[in-house]
Structure formats: C-alpha cells, structure tokens
Amino acid sequence: MLELRPSCECCDKDLPPDAAARICTFECTFCAACADEVLNGVCPNCGGNLVERPIRPTALLLKYPASTKRIVKENGCPS
C-alpha cells in the first residue's frame, strides 16, 4: 500500500492525500511543480519516471491513513 507521504522532497510543500503529487517506483514524492518544472519528470534519487500519485478515497483514509513522515532533501533538488 502506498505511504502517501505528506510533503515534497524538494521544497517541503505540504501534500495532503488528495493533492496533485508525483511519485516514482520507490514512492519518492514531489509536488507537481517541482516534478514537472525542476525535475522534468525524472526522480533525482533513482532516475525513474515520476507519475501522478493516485488519490486514496476519503472513506479509506480512516482505515488506511497517509504517512506523517516527512522526507526532504537537505539541499533541495537540483535546478
């Protein structure tokens, strides 16, 4: 099951479970702006492609809540 991480690894923007976010196969998570404009759709951690993160239905968030663990790159993402 996806963690649904709560923030962008580049800019630390909050990403609630229903936010437009991008993830790679390892669930590295980025806001749409960083993923599209800074990273050009490529994960800086693994080199894989970034795809739209699915939205977990609200009713299932109660049973399967999103992660609260924030992961942020120390120096942000490369420009």
Outline the fold blueprint.
Elements: E1 21-23, E2 29-31, H1 32-38, E3 51-52, H2 58-63
Antiparallel strand pairs: 1-2, 1-3
Please outline the major beta sheet.
3 strands, antiparallel
Strand fraction equals 5-15%
| CATH topology category name | Herpes Virus-1
Tally of helical runs: 2
Number of strands: 3
Q: What form results from the Cα inertia axes?
A: globular
**How far apart are the first and last residues' alpha carbons, in Å?**
31 Å
Strand order of the largest sheet: 2-1-3
Radius of gyration equals 12 Å
Mean pLDDT: 94
Structural class: alpha+beta
Query: How many domains make up the coordinates?
Result: 1
Helix content: 10-25%
The top-level CATH class is: Alpha Beta
Tell me the series of helices and strands, N- to C-terminal: EEHEH
CATH architectural grouping: 2-Layer Sandwich
Low-confidence stretches: none
What does it look like?
- It is a single chain.
- The chain is of the alpha+beta class.
- The chain has one domain: Herpes Virus-1 (2-Layer Sandwich).
- 16% of the residues lie in helices and 10% in strands.
- It is built from 2 helices and 3 strands, in the order E-E-H-E-H.
- It has helices at residues 32-38, 58-63, and strands spanning 21-23, 29-31, 51-52.
- The protein has a 3-stranded antiparallel β-sheet with strand order 2-1-3.
- The protein is globular, with a radius of gyration of 12 Å.
- The chain starts with 20 loop residues before the first strand and ends in a 16-residue tail after the last helix.
- The model has no long low-confidence stretch (mean pLDDT 94).
